[in-house]
Amino acid sequence: MIQPSETKTRILDAAERCFALSGYHGASLRAITRDANVNLAAVNYHFGSKEGLIEAVFCRRILPLNEERKSLLQQELEAASCEDRLPSSGVVLKAFIEPTISLWRKEENADFLLLLGRMFNDSDETMRQIFFRHMTPLLDEFYVALQVALPQLSSEQVFWRLQFALGSLGHLMCRAGRLLWCPAGVDCGDDPTRIADHLLDFLVPAMEA
Protein backbone atom coordinates (compact mmCIF):
# COMPACT_ATOMS: atom_id res chain seq x y z
CA MET A 1 0.00 0.00 0.00
CA ILE A 2 1.35 3.43 -0.97
CA GLN A 3 1.78 5.70 2.04
CA PRO A 4 0.44 9.30 1.92
CA SER A 5 3.97 10.65 2.44
CA GLU A 6 5.20 8.69 -0.58
CA THR A 7 2.35 10.03 -2.71
CA LYS A 8 3.13 13.58 -1.60
CA THR A 9 6.81 13.16 -2.46
CA ARG A 10 5.98 11.78 -5.91
CA ILE A 11 3.72 14.75 -6.60
CA LEU A 12 6.39 17.21 -5.45
CA ASP A 13 9.06 15.52 -7.59
CA ALA A 14 6.81 15.55 -10.65
CA ALA A 15 5.73 19.15 -10.07
CA GLU A 16 9.33 20.28 -9.69
CA ARG A 17 10.21 18.66 -13.03
CA CYS A 18 7.18 20.04 -14.85
CA PHE A 19 7.48 23.57 -13.48
CA ALA A 20 11.21 23.57 -14.30
CA LEU A 21 10.55 22.51 -17.89
CA SER A 22 7.37 24.45 -18.65
CA GLY A 23 7.04 27.24 -16.09
CA TYR A 24 4.15 27.85 -13.71
CA HIS A 25 1.48 28.54 -16.32
CA GLY A 26 2.88 26.11 -18.88
CA ALA A 27 2.81 23.13 -16.53
CA SER A 28 -0.70 21.71 -16.22
CA LEU A 29 -1.96 19.76 -13.24
CA ARG A 30 -2.88 17.02 -15.71
CA ALA A 31 0.76 16.72 -16.80
CA ILE A 32 1.94 16.71 -13.19
CA THR A 33 -0.53 14.03 -12.09
CA ARG A 34 0.37 11.92 -15.13
CA ASP A 35 4.08 12.20 -14.30
CA ALA A 36 3.44 11.35 -10.64
CA ASN A 37 0.97 8.57 -11.53
CA VAL A 38 -1.68 9.98 -9.19
CA ASN A 39 -5.13 11.47 -9.67
CA LEU A 40 -6.09 15.13 -9.35
CA ALA A 41 -7.83 14.46 -6.04
CA ALA A 42 -4.45 13.58 -4.51
CA VAL A 43 -3.02 16.96 -5.53
CA ASN A 44 -6.02 18.79 -4.10
CA TYR A 45 -5.86 16.76 -0.89
CA HIS A 46 -2.18 17.41 -0.21
CA PHE A 47 -1.75 20.93 -1.62
CA GLY A 48 -5.18 22.46 -2.18
CA SER A 49 -4.38 24.21 -5.46
CA LYS A 50 -1.76 24.68 -8.15
CA GLU A 51 -0.37 27.71 -6.30
CA GLY A 52 -0.25 25.67 -3.10
CA LEU A 53 1.69 23.03 -5.00
CA ILE A 54 4.34 25.39 -6.40
CA GLU A 55 4.73 26.94 -2.94
CA ALA A 56 5.31 23.49 -1.46
CA VAL A 57 7.89 22.78 -4.18
CA PHE A 58 9.85 25.88 -3.19
CA CYS A 59 9.43 25.35 0.56
CA ARG A 60 10.76 21.80 0.38
CA ARG A 61 14.14 23.09 -0.81
CA ILE A 62 14.26 26.66 0.50
CA LEU A 63 13.25 26.24 4.13
CA PRO A 64 16.00 23.75 5.10
CA LEU A 65 18.49 25.85 3.13
CA ASN A 66 17.43 29.01 4.95
CA GLU A 67 17.72 27.29 8.32
CA GLU A 68 21.30 26.34 7.49
CA ARG A 69 22.08 29.90 6.39
CA LYS A 70 20.54 31.37 9.55
CA SER A 71 22.46 28.94 11.75
CA LEU A 72 25.78 29.86 10.14
CA LEU A 73 24.97 33.56 10.38
CA GLN A 74 24.02 33.25 14.04
CA GLN A 75 27.27 31.43 14.79
CA GLU A 76 29.28 34.35 13.40
CA LEU A 77 27.17 36.97 15.19
CA GLU A 78 27.56 35.15 18.51
CA ALA A 79 31.30 34.66 17.98
CA ALA A 80 31.72 38.37 17.20
CA SER A 81 29.80 39.31 20.33
CA CYS A 82 31.84 36.96 22.55
CA GLU A 83 35.12 38.22 21.07
CA ASP A 84 34.03 41.88 21.24
CA ARG A 85 34.54 42.50 17.53
CA LEU A 86 32.52 43.34 14.47
CA PRO A 87 31.13 40.43 12.48
CA SER A 88 33.25 39.50 9.47
CA SER A 89 31.57 40.51 6.24
CA GLY A 90 33.33 37.60 4.55
CA VAL A 91 31.92 35.08 7.01
CA VAL A 92 28.46 36.65 6.71
CA LEU A 93 28.56 36.32 2.92
CA LYS A 94 29.94 32.80 3.20
CA ALA A 95 27.01 31.84 5.44
CA PHE A 96 24.66 32.70 2.60
CA ILE A 97 26.69 31.55 -0.39
CA GLU A 98 28.17 28.19 0.63
CA PRO A 99 24.86 26.46 1.48
CA THR A 100 23.42 27.76 -1.78
CA ILE A 101 26.20 26.43 -3.97
CA SER A 102 26.16 23.14 -2.07
CA LEU A 103 22.83 22.42 -3.80
CA TRP A 104 24.93 21.27 -6.76
CA ARG A 105 26.34 18.42 -4.72
CA LYS A 106 23.12 16.40 -4.82
CA GLU A 107 21.62 15.05 -8.02
CA GLU A 108 18.17 15.31 -6.44
CA ASN A 109 18.44 19.11 -6.66
CA ALA A 110 18.96 19.19 -10.45
CA ASP A 111 15.34 19.96 -11.31
CA PHE A 112 15.13 22.59 -8.59
CA LEU A 113 18.20 24.37 -9.97
CA LEU A 114 16.56 24.44 -13.40
CA LEU A 115 13.41 25.78 -11.75
CA LEU A 116 15.40 28.61 -10.16
CA GLY A 117 16.85 29.52 -13.54
CA ARG A 118 13.39 29.60 -15.09
CA MET A 119 12.00 31.63 -12.20
CA PHE A 120 14.63 34.36 -12.59
CA ASN A 121 14.32 34.52 -16.39
CA ASP A 122 10.58 34.10 -16.97
CA SER A 123 8.36 37.15 -17.33
CA ASP A 124 5.70 35.58 -15.09
CA GLU A 125 5.77 36.88 -11.51
CA THR A 126 3.93 34.03 -9.76
CA MET A 127 6.98 31.94 -8.88
CA ARG A 128 9.13 34.97 -8.00
CA GLN A 129 6.48 36.29 -5.62
CA ILE A 130 6.29 32.95 -3.82
CA PHE A 131 10.08 32.58 -3.75
CA PHE A 132 10.72 36.04 -2.32
CA ARG A 133 7.92 35.72 0.21
CA HIS A 134 10.11 33.10 1.87
CA MET A 135 13.45 34.76 1.08
CA THR A 136 12.80 38.38 2.09
CA PRO A 137 12.92 37.87 5.90
CA LEU A 138 16.24 36.05 5.54
CA LEU A 139 17.67 38.70 3.21
CA ASP A 140 16.68 41.33 5.76
CA GLU A 141 18.70 39.48 8.42
CA PHE A 142 21.79 39.32 6.22
CA TYR A 143 21.40 42.97 5.25
CA VAL A 144 21.31 44.02 8.92
CA ALA A 145 24.32 41.80 9.70
CA LEU A 146 26.32 43.42 6.89
CA GLN A 147 25.37 46.87 8.15
CA VAL A 148 26.84 45.92 11.52
CA ALA A 149 29.92 44.37 9.89
CA LEU A 150 30.56 47.40 7.66
CA PRO A 151 29.77 50.51 9.74
CA GLN A 152 31.85 52.69 7.39
CA LEU A 153 29.30 52.14 4.61
CA SER A 154 25.93 53.83 4.27
CA SER A 155 22.74 51.78 4.27
CA GLU A 156 22.41 52.45 0.55
CA GLN A 157 25.93 51.20 -0.14
CA VAL A 158 25.33 48.00 1.83
CA PHE A 159 22.04 47.42 0.03
CA TRP A 160 23.49 47.78 -3.46
CA ARG A 161 26.60 45.76 -2.74
CA LEU A 162 24.45 42.97 -1.36
CA GLN A 163 22.28 43.23 -4.49
CA PHE A 164 25.36 42.82 -6.70
CA ALA A 165 26.55 39.87 -4.59
CA LEU A 166 23.15 38.20 -4.95
CA GLY A 167 23.25 38.91 -8.68
CA SER A 168 26.59 37.12 -9.02
CA LEU A 169 25.28 34.17 -7.05
CA GLY A 170 22.03 34.17 -9.01
CA HIS A 171 23.95 34.04 -12.29
CA LEU A 172 25.73 30.89 -11.15
CA MET A 173 22.54 29.30 -9.83
CA CYS A 174 20.64 30.02 -13.05
CA ARG A 175 23.35 28.19 -14.95
CA ALA A 176 23.26 25.35 -12.38
CA GLY A 177 27.04 25.40 -12.32
CA ARG A 178 27.45 25.22 -16.11
CA LEU A 179 29.74 27.96 -17.37
CA LEU A 180 28.95 29.93 -20.50
CA TRP A 181 32.62 30.13 -21.41
CA CYS A 182 35.96 28.67 -20.34
CA PRO A 183 39.25 29.70 -22.01
CA ALA A 184 41.76 27.10 -23.10
CA GLY A 185 44.27 26.13 -20.45
CA VAL A 186 42.15 27.26 -17.49
CA ASP A 187 40.83 24.81 -14.92
CA CYS A 188 37.12 25.67 -14.95
CA GLY A 189 36.05 22.72 -12.82
CA ASP A 190 32.59 22.62 -11.30
CA ASP A 191 33.52 21.67 -7.72
CA PRO A 192 31.08 23.64 -5.52
CA THR A 193 33.65 24.36 -2.80
CA ARG A 194 36.13 25.85 -5.26
CA ILE A 195 33.42 27.88 -6.96
CA ALA A 196 32.27 29.26 -3.59
CA ASP A 197 35.87 30.18 -2.73
CA HIS A 198 36.36 31.98 -6.06
CA LEU A 199 33.08 33.84 -5.67
CA LEU A 200 33.93 34.95 -2.13
CA ASP A 201 37.43 36.02 -3.20
CA PHE A 202 35.72 38.29 -5.72
CA LEU A 203 32.84 39.55 -3.56
CA VAL A 204 34.42 40.22 -0.17
CA PRO A 205 36.93 42.90 -1.31
CA ALA A 206 34.17 44.54 -3.36
CA MET A 207 31.81 44.50 -0.38
CA GLU A 208 34.43 46.03 1.91
CA ALA A 209 35.85 48.61 -0.53
Task: Give a written overview of the molecule.
- The chain is an all-alpha fold and 209 residues long.
- It has 2 domains: 1-48, Homeodomain-like (Arc Repressor Mutant, subunit A), CATH 1.10.10.60; 62-208, Orthogonal Bundle (Tetracycline Repressor, domain 2), CATH 1.10.357.
- Helix content is 76%, strand content 0%.
- The protein is built from 9 helices and no strands.
- It has helices spanning 4-26, 29-36, 40-47, 50-82, 89-101, 110-121, 126-149, 155-174, 192-208.
- α1 packs parallel to α6, α4 runs antiparallel to α5 (89-101) and α8 (155-174) runs antiparallel to α9.
- It is globular and about 55 Å long.
- It starts with a helix and ends with a helix.
- The mean pLDDT is 90.
Instruction: Give the SSE string.
Output: HHHHHHHHH
Distance between the termini: 60 Å
> Got a strand count?
0
The residue fraction in helices comes out at over 70%
CA gyration radius, whole angstroms: 19 Å
Shape: globular
- CATH classification, class level of the largest domain: Mainly Alpha
Structural domains: how many: 2
Fourth-level CATH superfamily of the largest domain: Tetracycline Repressor, domain 2
- The fraction of residues in strands falls at under 5%
Mean pLDDT rating: 90
What is the fold-level CATH name, i.e. the topology of the largest domain?
Answer: Tetracycline Repressor, domain 2
The main β sheet shows up as: none
What's the helix count?
9
Give the second-level CATH assignment, the architecture of the largest domain. Answer: Orthogonal Bundle
Low-confidence regions: none
- Determine the structural class based on helices, strands and strand pairing: mainly alpha
